[in-house]
Specification:
- The chain is an alpha+beta fold.
- It contains 1 helix and 9 strands, in the order αβββββββββ.
Length: 143
């Protein structure tokens, strides 16, 4: 009886040690991924908090719609990832300019973004425009 109890206890102890040595790295990896996800979420929330956009001018004349917006936040935005909705639809084609330069995609704080859309890409007699940044900050104005 003495050896079988001691042998069984040793086998169980070795089994527990093997199980812990297999489970610990998996649990540690899951905890690291969770911590990274929390940090990413907090960084995105801070970027949204620091982003602000104001529509400066919305003009519909001469066969085109021109929308001018100012980056009033403290974070840079992507002009290419900024979406313009006209009466709830996204125009197929648009021209972008950041501070008068058509080839720029980086929209820095205190700079103006101008979006020009031809009438052929617009619904008939548009009423409202909405500008949405890549961070989800949006502003709406009547035409």
């Amino acid at each position: 009886m003495g050896f079988s109890t001691s042998g069984a206890t040793a086998i169980i102890l070795v089994g527990v040690l093997v199980a812990v040595s297999v489970a610990y790295p998996a649990l540690q990896s899951a905890q690291d991924l969770r911590q990274n996800a929390i940090e990413d979420r907090d960084n995105r929330a801070l970027e949204v908090q620091n982003a602000a956009v104001e529509l400066e001018d919305v003009e519909h004349a001469d066969g085109e719609l021109t929308v001018t917006a100012r980056n009033d936040g403290s974070t840079s935005l992507s002009a290419a990832d900024t979406t313009l909705l006209v009466d709830g639809t996204i125009p197929d084609d648009r021209d972008l300019e950041v501070d008068g330069e058509p080839d720029r995609e980086l929209w820095l704080p205190e700079e103006e973004l101008t979006i020009t859309v031809d009438d052929s890409d617009l619904p008939d007699d548009p009423d409202r425009v909405k500008l949405v940044t890549e961070r989800g900050v949006a502003t709406t104005e009547a035409v």
